[in-house]
Design brief:
This protein is α+β, with helices and mostly antiparallel strands. The chain has one domain. Helices cover about 20% and strands about 25% of the residues. The protein is built from 2 helices and 4 strands. A hairpin with a 5-residue loop joins strand 3 and strand 4. The chain is elongated, with a radius of gyration of 12 Å. The mean pLDDT is about 80.
Length: about 70
């Protein structure tokens, strides 16, 4: 089975990113958001989350906000 490389998508406001990767044991695609710490399954679901995630309204600041 060919595995997909890790990818990332910027969140809607550009302040965070959603990274997707293939789980090494199950082969499923998983995603996690650096802005709101949400996680889930599926490449398309990760891309959809990134398109709607707005860190300025989530209560979390991007990790590099003060750098």
């Amino acid at each position: 089975m060919a595995s997909l490389e890790s990818r990332f998508y910027l969140t809607a406001d550009g302040g965070g990113r959603v990274e997707t990767a293939t789980h090494p044991e199950t082969g499923e695609r998983r995603w996690t958001c650096s802005s709101c710490e949400a996680t889930g399954q599926g490449e398309d679901n990760g891309r959809t989350h990134a398109a709607g995630c707005n860190t300025t309204t989530s209560g979390y600041l991007p990790l590099d906000h003060w750098s």
